[in-house]
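seq:
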Amino acid sequence: MTQAFRSLDEFRALLAQAPAADLTARKEAEARNGQLTKPPGALGRLEDLAIWYAGWRGTARPELAAPQVVVFAGNHGVTAQGVSAFPAEVTEQMVLNFEHGGAAINQLSKAFGASMDVHALSLDTPTADFTQGPAMSEQELVAALLTGWSAVGDETDLLVTGEMGIGNTTSAAAIAHALYGGAADDWTGRGTGVDDAGLANKTRVVAEAIALHGGQGDGIEVLRRLGGREVAAMAGAIARARSLRIPVILDGFICCAAAACLAATEDGALDHCVAGHASAEAAHQALLGKLGKEPLLSLGLRLGEGSGAALAIGVLKGAIACHSGMATFAEAGVSDG
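struct:
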C-alpha cells in the first residue's frame, strides 16, 4: 500500500481535505426519527446520536456491526523527571496484559462486540524529555501518526482509540496548556496517583515545558514537541477514521489531548467524534469544554486504555438499534396524533 503521507505538511493537507458528513443521509435520518413510534424527543440524546451516526455512515437507517478498539502504547522521556507513581517498565508489562486478554479494555471490548488491536511503538526508545527539547523529530512523529493511520480497519464502522504509556498524563497536560493557555496547575492532575509533592513536581514540569515550547506552531507542532508516540498514533487513527467517514468515540484526557491537536490544526477536524465519558482526571472536563464535546457517561473512570469510550459503545449501539429497528407510525398502524 502506498504510504499515505511522508511529511507533516502532507498530513496537514489530508486533514484539510477530509470529507464531511452526508447531509442527505442526515436529513433522511431526521425525517425517519420524526416518524418513529414515540413522542418527539422522547429518546433524548439517543436520537441526536443516531442521526449524527447516520450522517457519517451515509445511510438513513444505519447498522453498527463492526466497532474497533485500538490501543497504542509508548514510553516518555519526561518520566526521568519523576512525574509518575509507576516506572516506565509498566508500559511493556501492560502491553503483555492486553495481548493476553487480562485488562479492563479486553473485557469491555468483548462485552460490546468490538475487535481489539494493540500496537506498541518503540517502547525501548522513549521520546525525548520535553523539558529539554522537542519530544519527537518530524520523522518520528510521521512514523507514529502512520502507525495510527494504518491501524484502522477498512470495514470498521465505529472507532475507539486507547492508550498506555507511563508519563502520558504529563504529556496531555502540557499539550492542553500549550493549546489553551491558563496556568500549568489548571491542566495537571494526579494521573497514576502521585502524592502532593509529586503533583507539585509534575506541575513544575508542565510549566517548564510550556516555557520552552509555548507559542510555537499549530496543533501538529505542539504534538511533535510535547506528545508521545502513542498520543500521536491516536491522532493518526482519528484522522484516518475521518477520511473513511468512520465515527469515533473519544476516551479520556489523553485521547482528547491527541484529538485537540487535530482540532487546533484544522477547524471541524473532530466533527466525526463524540466524547465517550468525563474522566475523573482533573482537567478532562475543561478539555471537553474547549473541544465542545458533551460526554455520554460520567462514572468517575480514570483508567485510560480506551475503557470509558468502549463502555459508551453500548450507548451508541442502543441509539442506532432504536433508530433503525423501531417501526414508524405508518408501519405499526399507530396514530401519530
